[in-house]
Amino acid sequence: MENPSNPDLIMFTRGNPDTDALPLDDIITCATDIFRREGRVLFQYGHYSGYGPLRQWLADYLKADYEQVLIGNSSMEFLTFIGSALLAPGDTVWLENPSYDRAITAMRRLGARIVGLPLEADGIDLDAMQAAVRKQVPKLFYLVPEFQNPSGVTTSLAKREAIAQLAREHGFYIIEDAPYRPLRYRGMDIPTFRELAPEQTLHVCSFSKLLSPGMRVGFLIGPEALMPRLHKWSEDTYIHPTLVSEGIAYEYCRRGLLMPNITKLRALYKPRMEAMQDALKRHLPQASWAETDGGFFLGLTLPDNVDGNAVRENDTAFGIKLADGRGFFCDDSGTNFVRLPFCGMTAEESEEGVKRLAKLVSHYTL
């Protein structure tokens, strides 16, 4: 992904879907038809839990009851909803370390006590989890089980089962953020936390990576006993979410276009993922990262003898722009962490970008 104001600068900052991946012609057709058919509904006040036909489609698609489905303006919004409804200031929230930076920010804004659990190549460190629960049982555990942002790690079945069991024993809720789950390019799906511990899991996803981020349509599937509180929170927050976008998403799904588009996305992103990993093996073998099988990101840890602060501060001098790796950590351990998004890059751009990163790292190796 290049910077339009400086086409020579390769951007390793945001994980945006490739613009060419947006099915604009189909979106335009769906918008035109649904507006003509349902415009009087979509452009009027509506139900606080979202557009009914899309809720029903999602309930059928995800094998949930209708009342378990809440639609919102993004999956990120649900983190605030859940935290506001369930947390009191000082309550403990677990996150993976590293974790999605905006989830860290959201929980801090809500006054939660954040505990970061070290992330290994197959998910969190279970010994650290057991030690943490002996100190304080959390109210929530937020994690991205598939192709995690920012590390690319996928939580193994064994670790999912251990986490699910602990949630049942101690009564905390798991926030399962699953925006990348459909974007698996290799291997087999692993059961979700919603399948393993349905009464303890809030499954959050969106159409941002699968259809369009600009449409801002996210959805949550939660335990029946908890959903009335979240539906009410939605009503009291914005009366209802954006029905216009939800109508377009519904028409797209109703026509059977979603799965063919996911197939196209997998075909687009798989070679980009492989190109990035191949480039790292050739040019930065001294770094470490988790081999990923999907999603948008690889998380790179630079050796201890690399000055991570200098790497971050001098990136543009070497023709690249990096995200600040420290923002993905619950503590101060992210100085030498680099998140690399491959989703918006061609194989050639990944090759050149990693070459430049390797030169930058070499320059600041002590």
Give the integer mean of the pLDDT values.
95
> Sheet with the most strands?
8 strands, mixed
CATH architecture of the largest domain: 3-Layer(aba) Sandwich
- Assign a percent range to the helix content: 40-55%
How far apart, in Å, are the first and last alpha carbons? 30 Å
Which labels suit this protein?
single chain, 366 residues, alpha/beta, Aspartate Aminotransferase, domain 1, Aspartate Aminotransferase, domain 2, 2 domains, eight-stranded mixed β-sheet, three-stranded mixed β-sheet, 12 helices, 14 strands
Task: Give a verbal description of the structure.
With 366 residues, the chain is an alpha/beta fold. It has two domains: 2-22 and 261-363, Aspartate Aminotransferase, domain 1; 24-254, 3-Layer(aba) Sandwich (Aspartate Aminotransferase, domain 2). It has twelve helices and 14 strands. It has helices spanning 24-42, 52-61, 75-86, 101-109, 126-135, 157-170, 193-196, 227-238, 243-254, 258-283, 308-313, 347-363; strands spanning 2-3, 6-12, 69-72, 92-97, 113-120, 123-124, 140-143, 173-177, 201-206, 218-221, 288-289, 297-301, 320-322, 337-341. The chain has an eight-stranded mixed β-sheet, sandwiched between helices. Strand 7 (140-143), helix 6 and strand 8 (173-177) form a beta-alpha-beta unit. Helix 10 runs parallel beside helix 12. The protein is globular, with a radius of gyration of 21 Å. The model has no long low-confidence stretch (mean pLDDT 95).
